[in-house]
Specification:
The chain is 29% helix and 22% strand. The strands form two sheets. Strands 3, 4, 5, 6 and 7 form a five-stranded antiparallel beta sheet that branches.
Length: 129
């Protein structure tokens, strides 16, 4: 079991003087800089936060058993209801552990379906461009 009395030291989150005015009311937004996920500052902040989290989670003795059980429970095919758009039918399917469901298309409800869009492949596609 983890030592619940051990204090977690979180990385410092920089604050700025960002301020907006909406309908005459000043609204402070000191963490606006985090809204840019591609900036080096945000990437460093996320990495530091992840390191704290992973170090804590790594100490949980039952973590591997919990992960295995959740994987077992979540690993089954999932289908959306089919929907018709124009002259074609569409549905989403997730084989079990895919991050995102895949969009399929077919001409009739009885015809063979084909992948129209697989968001799980988008990062690979962008990287290969």
């Amino acid at each position: 079991m983890t030592n619940s009395s051990a204090k977690i030291i979180y990385p410092v989150s920089d604050r700025t003087e960002q301020q907006d005015v909406y309908h005459g009311i000043k609204v402070r937004d000191p963490y606006r800089w985090l809204e840019n996920p591609d900036s080096p500052e945000t990437k460093n902040w996320v990495a530091a936060q992840n390191e704290v989290t992973e170090n804590y989670l790594a100490k949980i003795p039952a973590r591997d058993k919990i992960r295995a059980r959740l994987t077992q429970l979540w690993n089954y095919p999932k289908f959306s209801s089919p929907f018709k758009q124009g002259n074609r039918y569409f549905y989403f399917k997730n084989d079990g552990l895919q991050n995102q469901s895949v969009l399929y298309v077919q001409d009739t409800l009885d015809s063979e379906s084909t992948v129209l869009l697989d968001p799980n492949q988008l990062s690979k596609m962008v990287l290969s461009l």
